[in-house]
Write a structure and sequence with these properties.
mainly beta, two-stranded antiparallel ribbon, 4 helices, 21 strands, about 55% strand, globular
Length: about 425
């Protein structure tokens, strides 16, 4: 009853804020309004000796809500975007994560702005059953001329050619297990692009960040990067990258080429570490589409080498390691050194698509299978269901990592998701 009263009070504040936002947008001319609302039901099953089961229900149930309101405008060469969102998680997981805080890092899945320049995220609620935030995920003004493109504010940039892993995308990349990739989380930055007459282009990013311990903007926490994209002899597309990222120098390159009616890609980055030494990461993949039994098929394979990953499982949770630093910054999401992934999409009907994904840690023989189906119910309504099935022995990344000082281990559980999306 107390939770309902708190939710009602917060909802009144939310509706007042939404009314003010929509009123100001409606007063302007030529704004394009839209958005979506997503509801997701998740049930997870853990083994008895999994710490998630020891500190919470063995089969927790969670509900996730994602509301996004978008307003976009263009006048001449100028444009602007404002995206407001409410994200809420209600169920068993918030209490379990809090109970595990002193044993292992089990951070919330909701975004925060503790490192971003602008504080555009506020907690709506944070208790044992409900975690909710409201935030601005896009807020920028841009200019697009014949050769110059410029944007300032909260926005996104995605670099690289990876499907599952993204060594060249050093700015808030998607998790390898992410299913929902409609919107990448925005960052506060200055972005510039110069378009050459040849079709090549040069991109620049200046991304200031705060030190989460001091709340001050620091150069050691920030990023400055260039990327040149071009074509060689009408056969090879290439990217060249140079960056100063979290007080480390990063260089990289990417290649793309058609091979036997398939498309091959390679991305490689080298980082000079503050602790000394150089680490190299790379991803290479190939994708191909075909027709079989009068059905459209699409598939890909990908290999990933994580330069900061570990080959020995007992080092997975070393608190001061270079790997843990990047995990906390949201740059990498996996623990091992080498991975193989693959995926297949089958268009069973024009309205229903079936997908399978596989991610395998090549050092500890653990991995994750993902199966999902997407049904376009109506023009604006979509239903998605999928299953995550991890496998592996105890002591492996997906089978379970032993936690010092406890009798159990941490491992992802078997999960079933059901998501309903309405676009407007």
């Amino acid at each position: 009853m107390v939770v309902l009263k708190v939710m009602k009070r917060k909802l009144n504040y939310l509706l007042s804020g939404l009314f003010a936002l929509l009123s100001s947008i409606a007063a302007a001319e030529d704004w394009s309004l839209g958005g979506h609302i997503k509801y997701q039901f998740v049930t997870t099953h853990y083994q008895n000796d999994n710490l998630y089961a020891q500190y919470g229900p063995q089969s927790p149930i969670d509900n996730f809500l994602d509301l996004r309101l978008t307003a976009e405008n263009r006048w001449g060469a100028w444009d602007a975007q404002i995206h407001y969102e409410v994200l809420a998680l209600y169920g068993d997981s918030p209490k379990t994560r809090k109970a595990l805080t002193n044993i292992a890092s089990t951070a919330t899945t909701l975004p925060r702005d503790n490192r971003r320049l602008l504080k555009l995220t506020s907690k709506w609620e944070n208790n044992d059953e409900l975690e909710a935030v409201q935030r601005l995920d896009r807020l920028f003004v841009g200019y697009s001329g014949e050769q110059l493109v410029f944007r300032a504010g909260r926005q996104i940039v995605s670099w690289g050619n990876g499907f599952v892993f993204h060594p060249l995308d050093i700015f808030s990349p998607f998790s390898p297990t992410a299913i929902d990739k409609d919107y990448k989380t925005g960052d506060d930055m200055l972005y510039g692009q110069w378009l050459f007459d040849s079709g090549d282009d040069l991109q620049m990013i200046l991304l200031p960040r705060r030190n989460p311990d001091t709340n001050d903007v620091e150069s050691e926490q920030s990023s400055f990067a260039f990327k040149y994209r071009g074509r060689y002899k009408e056969q090879w597309d290439f990217d060249l990258l140079g960056a100063r990222h979290f007080d480390e120098n990063v260089v990289g390159f990417g290649l793309t080429k058609d091979i036997f009616e398939a498309l091959w890609r390679l991305d490689m980055s080298a980082t000079r570490l503050k602790e000394g030494g150089t680490t190299v990461s790379l991803v290479t993949n190939m994708d191909y589409s075909w027709v079989l039994f009068k059905k459209n098929f699409y598939g890909f394979i990908e290999y990933f080498h994580n330069g900061v990953g570990e080959t020995q499982t007992h080092k997975y949770i070393s608190p001061e390691s270079t790997l843990q630093t990047r995990l906390q910054r949201g740059e990498v999401y996996t623990l091992g050194r080498d991975y193989f992934s693959s995926g297949v999409q089958i268009e069973l009907t024009p309205l229903f698509n079936f997908y399978t994904n596989w991610i395998a840690n090549l050092h500890d023989n653990s991995g994750l299978f993902q199966i999902r189906g997407i049904y376009d119910w109506t023009e604006n309504l979509q239903l998605i269901g999928w299953i995550d099935k991890p496998y592996g022995n105890e002591g492996t990344e997906f089978g379970g990592i032993s936690i010092e000082g406890s009798d159990g281990y941490l491992a992802p559980g078997q999960r079933f998701y059901l998501r309903l999306i309405y676009y407007f």
